[in-house]
């Protein structure tokens, strides 16, 4: 699991390669990723936007942004966690994702929270340790 803390918000991500939905013969590699957004602060926060950068091993980069997450703009109270699962397709067997969530407090303050960079590794790509 990958983790990053910005201010009092912890974002955790766990990616999973979906073999049954992928087709290496068609250059289609599919991942699911589960995100936890934990509010360790003292005030409610609302997730109002997302901005993702998705890069594959061949250098192809996609930018994905929009309101909220998975069709929601959840409010996370102090001590609570919001969890959701989404997916990402690539045309290469490995890549990396990272990004930010735009947060808003009840009094209108807006700020960005970093999403940790995480690797998308399929069993069709040999891992090389540096």
Care to describe what's here?
It is a single chain. By secondary structure, the protein is an all-beta fold. It has a single domain (2-121), classed as Immunoglobulin-like (Sandwich), CATH 2.60.40. Helices cover 0% and strands 62% of the residues. The chain contains no helices and 9 strands. It has strands spanning 2-6, 9-17, 29-39, 45-56, 61-67, 75-76, 81-90, 94-105, 110-121. Strands 4, 5, 6, 8 and 9 form a 5-stranded antiparallel β-sheet that branches. Strands 1-2-3-7 form a 4-stranded antiparallel β-sheet, with no helix packed on it. A hairpin with a 4-residue loop joins strand 8 and strand 9 (110-121). It is elongated and about 50 Å long. The protein starts with a strand and ends in a 9-residue tail after the last strand. The relative contact order is 0.28.
